[in-house]
Amino acid sequence: MALRINFNYSAAVTQTALQTNNRLMNKSLLRLSTGLRILNAADDSAGLFIADQLAVVSAGLEQGNRNIQTGISALQIAENSAGQIYNKLKEIYVKAENAANDINDPNARAALQREINNLIDAIEKIGRDTEYNGIKLLDGTFTNKYIHYGARKDQVISVNIDSVLPKDLGAYIVKGQGAIYTSGAVSVGTFSANFTSATNWVVDSGDYVDVAGIRVLSYDGTRRFVDAKSLADAINTNKDLQALGIEAQAKNTNSASNSFTGFANFWSTTGSTATVSQVTLDFYIGNKDITGSSDFQVTIDSNITSLNQLVEAINTQASAAGVDIKAKAVDGKLVLETGGGETIAVDVAVSGTDLSQGATVNLSQILEGASDITVSTNTNNYFYIDVGEIDIAGVESYNVNQSGVSASNEGFNFDVSTATAKNLNAVSVLTNASAEEALLILKKAIQRVDIVRSEIGAVMNNLQTIYDAQKVAMDNTNEAENVIRNVDFSKEMSTFTTLQIRMQSGVAMLAQANTLPQLVLQLLR
User: Does any domain span residue 225?
Assistant: First the structure.
């Protein structure tokens, strides 16, 4: 072994190892004191980059969930206020139904109207005053708003809340006012022959009705009377129109123009020998094939001397035929009413003696808008048709297009082609007719508010689902970052213990290495 005193290699190497151990032990000590595995970029440059990116995502998810919570808070305010509006509309609906009862006198209806006006004013205030942090929610201005929920660009949900102000709540209505056709005295013939020129009263080739661009009535190969009930049924069973909130209601009430005074006063003659022995009414109800037989027949003769007898005769025959039409006496007049708004068509035949001298039948005592006809022969007939009324109502604007089934005072007799908006401000209950219409307006207004509430609820549910999913994602992201960035204490403590032992042994060995040069002194003695 060579002995030198100018350079102690063993001490130098031991000191280097000691310094390395000291540096590693200090880093391990710092990791244990901070809990971080990566103290600076030099520790793990790739790991630092990944951990920092994960930290950004985690922070973004956390802020996104805070955004969701504030969005849900605002939507809860909007939905609760819309719920209050629904409650007000329900009150108005009940009052309108009350006013539709003709037991109410004008003073009672006026009082109900005042209450309704006050409730509408309350709806106006709720709609205009509902806000979140100064942002109006229910007046129609809260549209195209975005709630940013995610950690990345364009992770947003669009929110639109329609207006629930009285001016924007109501129904879009098209009325089929149902026209009456009177033929006058004509030669005996089938309905098919006598309605050849009356095309707007019959659904035949090329005829149709479209509602909101959806065909709901068309020629089925059989020429049938235009019928409000058939159209209403077609609209109400169409799922696409149901989805658009469009529905229809049909009715047909035919009130004789004049009071029925009995068979003896039902007719008059010009000549002294002319007599009328009976008047036969053939009834065709609904979308009847105009070439087919009648549904039932009623004969008015000397056996019928009163309105009650006539009512009984019609009801008996209609019941036997299974036809949904009912006769009743109202204020001395005959009133015919179909159950679902079906068309009422009548073929009138007059029988008698020496009718060539001229006989007049007062059909105005039987049918609404019918003329008092004069016949000169037993071969004369009179044709009559009354199309029921139909109200088509929706929550949004729509068009009604038709061909061959509606014209002014003919067929369905639609009042407009583009639905007319009638909002809450148009609600009037001062008459039975206006109160009935108010019920339809209010029904659609309630549906609109319910649609708004359901849309708000759907967004809230969507946001809550996203919140829950992002909370899980945030937890997993934090865990992923934790694995990279933070220290494993059990492993690091083991490392620190090892380094500590190595440090202690290194100090001891350095002391031993420093004594080696002293061996030279033994040689110099």
Answer: yes
